[in-house]
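Quick one, T. Sequence first:
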Amino acid sequence: MSTASMQLAAASGLMSLVLFLVAVAVLTMLAGSFWLGSRIKFREPPRPRPEEQPHLPAEGPVHEIRENRESEEVPWIPKGERPLTPYELSNQQTRPSTSKDRPRWSKGSSGSFGGGGLGAH
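Structure tokens:
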């Protein structure tokens, strides 16, 4: 055998050894993660039994309530006085509306900026 082929064989054997060690390291990490996961799962509380599950109230299921809301008006500032800053305004509360009509967007508008509609004309 020539020295070039011996060097190639030695490099090939070294590469095989490195690949084998990498494979062993990966398998060790997988086994360790499985072991750690099972330890963590073992420490968790058990799943609730059927009698511990939530039940419907005696009145039956709770349903959604639809109502229109009106917001409070922003306080009016007399002419010549300094306007209020956002920090001086309180939280704007809402109250139930007397109107039962649902507010609609303009015809041809999706109601959102950049929604692709033609917009109000």
